[in-house]
# Entry
Amino acid sequence: MHSGPPRKRRARNDVSLGPAQIPVMTIAPVVAPMASPAAAQATPILSINNIEVIYDRVILVLKGVSLDVPRGGIVALLGANGAGKTTTLKAISNLLHAERGEVTKGSIVLEGREVQSLSPDALVRRGCIQVMEGRHCFEHLTVEENLLTGAYTRRDGSAAIKRDLDLVYSYFPRIRERRGSLAGYTSGGEQQMCAIGRALMSRPKMILLDEPSMGLAPQIVEEIFEIVHRLNEQEGVSFLLAEQNVNMALKYAGHGYILENGRIVMDGPAASLRENEDVKEFYLGIAEGKRKSFRDAKHYKRRKRWLA
# Structure
């Protein structure tokens, strides 16, 4: 008979665990959520941040201009003659030095990289090209030779260039008919189509389009803007459009900026700008729901709100 202290009986569920049997809690790694396609689409392809431009080291032309161009979008840069629209485009495309101008403040960012120090041809290789005001075709070359000059920076072979040439002709059937004519003997509308087609031959991601309606008949202007809209929708080319024809520009753009005396004075969705009373009165010639005569327009009844 055992006389010692009573021995404790181990419960069935009281199991002693060795070091190898101790359960280990595993923590799943935290995975950052992927950016949605909509967020990627909202990222601007071009961002201008508070730039100033000076000519001849004396004349201040742009004063703190900032704007964004969304990827795959059309943005209108509006304003009267001399407001600074062309200077803004030349600041982006780095063509200011030819006119003794320079960006002295701010930054210009294309696809996440500052580009104000790049040469114009390097910028074209990165996918941004300007169509100059006044078209500037090579008058002594044929239309097709003009188009092929746009592919000068490409290194992807003649077959790819031929495919893009056919693509340009599909958008501009009128210049296909004039492909063998000297560009200097074509009409203004055909030269504008040739200039846009030449830009397309560089396979751009973004086109800076300066005054495409200048000097053209309204029917041709409508045709060119329709082609720009198709290029944006079907080819995904982004456009920054400098234009005095406010009504036409806001019809096709998704967003607009109004430039006056080198400053951005107003911006917003194109539909909103078209309904703005100041824009109607001072840029569309409409006041109190009706068109103003030239005599009335000479004597403004009220100042622009942004100048008050």
